[in-house]
């Protein structure tokens, strides 16, 4: 993407943001409407739907203000009021409320609203890996409150992604292989990768955005004591000894550690987490166990969030959105077959 195209995209995204209540702690845009994917022409990007996430400190107040400005964005749930919408947002699915297929300033957009507290929990502990997983990949930050907690949680989330990827990779690997592993974490166990998504999506994201991934992770890799990062060669070597893997397992987010523990510890034994992770560190299939643990987080949250999406979008928009996804998946299959 040329510098003029980047500036134009940034202006469009910020202009769209101006249509919403400004009381947000974090707003970012993501997806194929913002970052080119491999096999997509530059001219096609402008036609793709733009995806946003807004983190807000007070969802009830934010939805109240947004329904005053943008009432037509909401499904029939608007008649329940902002308090019930916030209850649905916070207590069901992955803690995100999406309005989709919304015309805004000549573009078609989708935006999710998440409470700042729930976002921080997801970033630190991978409670659902829904928004945290999106933030493993390059996003366009439009506004960010430099509050200590949120800033720290965003960095912690990236470090956790690197650690999980290390456990699932061999002793030596390329920088591209690392980013493919990281980009795929939040898709592990996601039923939408079987129905509704182009299966080559992860590879397409990474291949077209290597420089963006490097901007996110390079300094982190250079400072990590457990990896030899040969920057000029684009290669990395990681400590795969049981001691090295144990250190990495102990650094994983709490929810993932709990999922791994549940997979390995037989019912009734009730060993402590450290003892179980020490056992996993010595297992040749350590990476497989970590991947299964991640799937155990992603699968239920992606299913429940998608079910919630039928209510928040309404049936008509849900069908239309699903058809768009199926068409993209079909196009991906055609490219592979040709």
From TrEMBL:
GO molecular function term, any single one: phosphatidate cytidylyltransferase activity
Keywords from the named record: Lipid biosynthesis, Lipid metabolism, Magnesium, Membrane, Mitochondrion, Mitochondrion inner membrane, Nucleotidyltransferase, Phospholipid biosynthesis, Phospholipid metabolism, Transferase
Catalysed reaction, written as an equation: a 1,2-diacyl-sn-glycero-3-phosphate + CTP + H(+) = a CDP-1,2-diacyl-sn-glycerol + diphosphate
UniProt cross-references to Pfam families, sorted A to Z: Tam41_Mmp37 (PF09139)
Pathway as given in its UniProt record: Lipid metabolism; Phospholipid metabolism; CDP-diacylglycerol biosynthesis; CDP-diacylglycerol from sn-glycerol 3-phosphate: step 3/3
EC numbers for this chain: 2.7.7.41
GO cellular component: mitochondrial inner membrane
Reported cofactor(s): Mg(2+)
Main location, first listed in the record: mitochondrion
Coiled coil regions in record: none
Function field: Catalyzes the conversion of phosphatidic acid (PA) to CDP-diacylglycerol (CDP-DAG), an essential intermediate in the synthesis of phosphatidylglycerol, cardiolipin and phosphatidylinositol.
Protein family per UniProt: Belongs to the TAM41 family.
Name of the protein in its database record: Phosphatidate cytidylyltransferase, mitochondrial
Origin species: Pleurodeles waltl
């Amino acid at each position: 993407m040329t510098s003029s195209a980047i500036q134009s995209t940034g202006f469009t995204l910020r202009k769209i943001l101006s249509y919403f209540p400004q009381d947000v702690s974090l707003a970012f845009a993501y997806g194929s409407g913002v970052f080119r994917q491999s096999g997509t022409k530059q001219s096609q990007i402008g036609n793709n739907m733009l995806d946003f996430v807004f983190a807000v400190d007070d969802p009830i107040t934010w939805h109240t203000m947004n329904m005053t400005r943008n009432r037509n964005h909401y499904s029939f749930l608007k008649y329940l009021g902002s308090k019930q919408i916030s209850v649905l947002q916070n207590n069901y699915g992955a803690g995100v409320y999406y309005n989709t297929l919304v015309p805004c300033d000549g573009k078609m957009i989708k935006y999710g609203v998440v409470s700042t507290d729930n976002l921080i929990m997801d970033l630190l502990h991978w409670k659902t890996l829904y928004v945290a997983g999106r933030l493993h990949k390059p996003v366009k930050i439009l506004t960010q409150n430099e509050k200590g907690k949120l800033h720290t949680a965003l960095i912690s989330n990236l470090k956790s992604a690197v650690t999980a990827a290390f456990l699932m990779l061999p002793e030596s690997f390329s920088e591209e292989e690392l980013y493919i592993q990281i980009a795929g974490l939040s898709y592990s166990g996601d039923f939408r990768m079987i129905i509704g998504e182009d299966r080559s999506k992860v590879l397409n994201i990474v291949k077209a955005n290597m420089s963006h991934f490097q901007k996110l992770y390079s300094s982190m890799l250079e400072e990590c004591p457990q990896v030899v990062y040969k920057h000029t060669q684009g290669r990395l070597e990681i400590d795969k000894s049981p001691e090295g893997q144990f250190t990495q397992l102990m650094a994983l987010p709490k929810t993932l550690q709990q999922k791994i523990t549940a997979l390995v510890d037989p019912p009734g034994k009730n060993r402590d987490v450290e003892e179980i992770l020490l056992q996993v560190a010595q297992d040749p299939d350590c990476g497989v166990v970590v991947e299964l643990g991640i799937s155990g987080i992603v699968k239920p949250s992606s299913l429940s969030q998608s079910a919630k999406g039928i209510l928040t979008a309404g049936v008509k928009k849900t069908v239309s959105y699903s058809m768009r996804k199926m068409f993209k998946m079909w196009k991906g299959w055609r490219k592979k077959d040709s």
